[in-house]
Amino acid sequence: MSILFTYIKELVQVREHTNEPLRGTAMDELPSIKNAYLYVEDGRIVDYGSMDDLHPHPAEEVYNCENQIIAPGYVDSHTHLVFAATREKEFEDRIHGLSYEEIAARGGGILNSAAKLADMSEDDLYLQAQDRLKQLIAMGTTAIEIKSGYGLSVESEIKILRVIKRLKSENYIPIKATFLGAHAIPLAFKDDRNGYLDLIVNEMLPVIGEENLADYIDVFCEKNYFTVDEMLRIIETGSAYGLKAKVHVNQFNALGAIDAAVKAGAVSVDHLEVMTTADYESLADANTIATALPSCSFFLGLDYAPVNEMIDKNIAVALATDYNPGSTPSGNMNFVFSLACIKMKMTPQRAFNAMTVNAAHAMGLQYEVGSITRGKKAHLLFFKDIDSMAAVPYHFGHSIIDKVLVNGHHIQD
Ligand SMILES: N=CN[C@@H](CCC(=O)O)C(=O)O
Ligand SMILES: [Zn+2]
Questions:
Q1: Where in the cell is it found (predicted)?
Q2: What is the C-alpha to C-alpha distance for residues 37 and 360, in angstroms, rounded to an integer?
Q3: Can you give the pLDDT at residue 411?
């Protein structure tokens, strides 16, 4: 199937290649073509340019897009999409003054989610997650990373990862699976943390390797969760199974995890609400992507990751949702876009680069998605009649996406 989009008001995020993540002043540029055409064949971008340069084209379908800005779909490189139940009770507890850490210390938080998930069948988990994913795609997400981590037992962690595998095969957007067995110490091991680490290393990872259930490995490196040394042990064992690391660090405390993760070759370090001078130094010029999660800061009332400071220090910054039932019950990348601009003071150019090109790097998809580039997937956002991309974060809380195309096809929501 060949499709030609003509007279596009503005074609945004057009790049010859995206082999490297964007840093420093490159984050300030959002290359685009006004009055453009875009040619798609079999779900891939084949050609684009100014209408002035369009020669007669043998496309099977032609669409006039003169009132529309078209951009690549959002790339969400950090989610916990597979969970069994929401946690409104903890939300109310926080309104009454309890902190996220206090709720966790009382047995709420991740352990609460793990208890609920243990009781849910793989089929039901799948149906719920598929429904959520459908909603996210309708809001513009066209590539997503999904973590396990609400299992915390061999059976339940594998159950989540099998659900993600099924989501991969049933959807047309790229999905990456991350094994997060080290999300919390489960109750059964509360007096034997080494026993739980051994379970991850000796029981979970061999099955994951055998069934090819994950692309990445993650650890929640934080006080009362996992130490830097424990994180390194898990990352190293994961790498023996071909899993690269994407880790939760610096959400509440700076423990030196960033330096350790960068040296261990982590693809990304995520959260970063609390940063030290040493953390900036470890990340400057590193290949590791620094992923900020502003919706989590919004929901928990935490500081926002200092993204502009990072960009000024040549750190490659990405943005993601962190969609999960505890700290971020929203998977809406449009809202992330708004928070990045309103709360983190990113320009729309910086924010959109962080949510597309750099986010694709944060999940190894830089050759597949995240820009209008020849050969990439035609996963596209068509906006309602707006004058510039700044209108997208400006209209916070509203969807101004007219259509989402996956492989060049319109997704009906
Ligand atoms: N911080 C660790 N994990 C999740 C939240 C987990 C939960 O509260 O259920 C996060 O990234 O925010
Ligand atoms: Zn997370």
A1: Cytoplasm
A2: 24
A3: 79
Pairing of strands 409-410, 401-406: antiparallel
Domain boundaries, the chain: 2-72+371-411, 74-363
pTM for the model: 0.98
Q: Is the CB of 321 under 6 A from ligand 1?
A: no
Q: What is the arithmetic mean of pLDDT over 115-126?
A: 98
248 lines ligand 1 (CB under 6 A): yes
The binding site for Zn(2+) comprises: 78, 80, 248, 322
What letter represents residue 32's amino acid? S
Helices 154-170 & 109-118 angle (0-180, nearest 10): 80
> Which tens digit of pLDDT belongs to each residue from 224-268?
999 999 999 999 999 999 999 999 999 999 999 999 999 999 999
Compute the distance from residue 4 Cα to the ligand 2 centre, in Å.
Answer: 39
CATH assignment of 2-72+371-411?
A: 2.30.40.10
322 C-alpha to ligand 2 centroid (Å): 5
Ligand 1 neighbour 319 (Cβ under 6 A)? no
Going by the annotation, the residues of the binding site for 4-imidazolone-5-propanoate are 87, 150, 183, 251, 327
pLDDT, residue 412, reads 60
* Ligand closest to the CA atom of residue 76: 2
ipTM above threshold 0.95: yes
Task: Please tell me the predicted confidence (pLDDT) of residue 57.
Answer: 83
Tokens of 402: 């007219």
Phi, psi values for residue 103, rounded to 5°: -65, -40
User: Is the predicted pLDDT of residue 413 greater than 60, yes or no?
Assistant: no
**Residue written as token pair 């692309």:** 215
CATH classification of 74-363 is 3.20.20.140, yes or no? yes
For ligand 1, atom 11, the nearest C-alpha belongs to: 322
Continuous segment of H or E residues that includes residue 216: strand 216-219
**Ligand 1 lined by 110 (C-beta under 6 Å):** yes
